[in-house]
């Protein structure tokens, strides 16, 4: 069994197919003993890669994009989350909400796990014809703290992960989810990557086998209504009411959160434009500059040839 160590920026529902692949033995079927480390703070994933204690990192593609040709070059070899897992809450009811009407409001959004929340939301504003500078933001605080402050009266809107948003709305009738961003188009939200200079033929083979197992996890989740694995979801996310987890999981299943391990070019190009608008990159990067689809493509061919 080959050790293949993963360092991840967090523990999230949008990583569900990976958890399923691990629990159901799909990685072991490919000869991989996958271990997971979640450093605090999250950017410790880059330290794990640099010191060689991790074979891959899981997180936002904005990091390899931002670092390229500045600090360190990383190559993305697979994707797990194809959509944004965020949700927008406001006090009161959800009827009549439009993104285009948000100008002049104050938005609370957590940022402890990186820049993705603000990057995606401000890109969404621009796509809806709203200048992000027309809103005020409170985002340099812990997510739990911001959630409590929002429920106590601070700001007009609160952005957090979809699971936390639905859980908040379920226990607090004074707030409602007005937008689940999984419905807002493709974007390579969560990807696997490692330092470009350390990639060898042996690593590429392990990445291919990892993709085979992860694709099997994705397919398993897509083929099973979340209600049918209620107990498993309760074990994976014990702090959230299981009915909420089931609802969000099925919403993700319906709306393209999980597709395949390949990073889609259209979603990549869209995200690069958002990163350029946010000044994280000077100009949108080419797909091949950041992504090597070889392992994911080879995984698909391997599975196809055995069916």
Automatic annotation (TrEMBL):
One record GO biological process: thiamine biosynthetic process
Native source species: Cylindrodendrum hubeiense
Record keywords: Iron, Metal-binding, Pyridoxal phosphate, Thiamine biosynthesis, Transferase
Cofactor: Fe cation
Biological role stated in the UniProt entry: Responsible for the formation of the pyrimidine heterocycle in the thiamine biosynthesis pathway. Catalyzes the formation of hydroxymethylpyrimidine phosphate (HMP-P) from histidine and pyridoxal phosphate (PLP). The protein uses PLP and the active site histidine to form HMP-P, generating an inactive enzyme. The enzyme can only undergo a single turnover, which suggests it is a suicide enzyme.
Lineage: Eukaryota, Fungi, Dikarya, Ascomycota, Pezizomycotina
PANTHER family recorded: 4-AMINO-5-HYDROXYMETHYL-2-METHYLPYRIMIDINE PHOSPHATE SYNTHASE THI11-RELATED
A GO molecular-function annotation: transferase activity
Protein name, per record: 4-amino-5-hydroxymethyl-2-methylpyrimidine phosphate synthase
Catalysed reactions, semicolon-separated: N(6)-(pyridoxal phosphate)-L-lysyl-[4-amino-5-hydroxymethyl-2-methylpyrimidine phosphate synthase] + L-histidyl-[4-amino-5-hydroxymethyl-2-methylpyrimidine phosphate synthase] + 2 Fe(3+) + 4 H2O = L-lysyl-[4-amino-5-hydroxymethyl-2-methylpyrimidine phosphate synthase] + (2S)-2-amino-5-hydroxy-4-oxopentanoyl-[4-amino-5-hydroxymethyl-2-methylpyrimidine phosphate synthase] + 4-amino-2-methyl-5-(phosphooxymethyl)pyrimidine + 3-oxopropanoate + 2 Fe(2+) + 2 H(+)
Biological or metabolic pathway of the protein: Cofactor biosynthesis; thiamine diphosphate biosynthesis
Known partners and oligomeric status: Homodimer.
Family: Belongs to the NMT1/THI5 family.
Domain called SsuA/THI5-like: residue spans: 12-227
Keyword hit for Transport: no
């Amino acid at each position: 069994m080959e050790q293949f160590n993963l360092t991840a920026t967090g523990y999230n529902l949008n990583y569900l197919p990976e958890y399923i692949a691990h629990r159901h033995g799909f990685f072991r079927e490919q000869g991989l003993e996958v271990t997971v480390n979640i450093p605090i703070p999250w950017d410790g994933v880059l330290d794990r890669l640099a010191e060689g204690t991790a074979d891959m990192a899981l997180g936002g593609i904005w990091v390899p994009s931002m670092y390229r040709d500045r600090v360190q070059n990383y190559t993305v070899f697979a994707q797990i989350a194809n959509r944004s897992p965020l949700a927008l809450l406001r006090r009161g009811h959800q009827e009549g909400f439009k993104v285009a009407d948000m100008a002049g409001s104050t938005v609370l959004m957590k940022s402890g796990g990186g820049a993705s929340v603000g990057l995606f939301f401000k890109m969404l504003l621009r796509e809806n014809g709203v200048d992000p500078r027309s809103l005020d933001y409170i985002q340099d605080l812990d997510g739990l703290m911001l959630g409590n402050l929002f429920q106590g009266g601070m700001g007009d809107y609160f952005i957090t992960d979809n699971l936390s948003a639905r859980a908040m709305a379920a226990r607090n009738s004074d707030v409602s989810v007005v937008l689940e961003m999984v419905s807002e188009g493709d974007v390579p939200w969560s990807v696997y990557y490692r330092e470009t200079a350390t990639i060898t033929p042996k690593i590429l083979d392990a990445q291919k086998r990892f993709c085979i197992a992860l694709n099997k996890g994705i397919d398993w989740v897509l083929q099973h209504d979340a209600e049918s694995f209620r107990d498993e979801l309760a074990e994976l996310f014990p702090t959230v009411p299981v009915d909420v987890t089931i609802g969000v999981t099925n919403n993700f299943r319906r709306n393209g959160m999980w597709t395949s391990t390949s990073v889609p070019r259209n979603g990549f190009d869209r995200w690069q434009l958002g990163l350029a608008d946010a000044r994280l990159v000077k100009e949108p990067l080419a797909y091949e500059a950041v992504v090597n689809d070889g392992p994911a493509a080879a995984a698909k061919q391997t599975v196809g040839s055995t069916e």
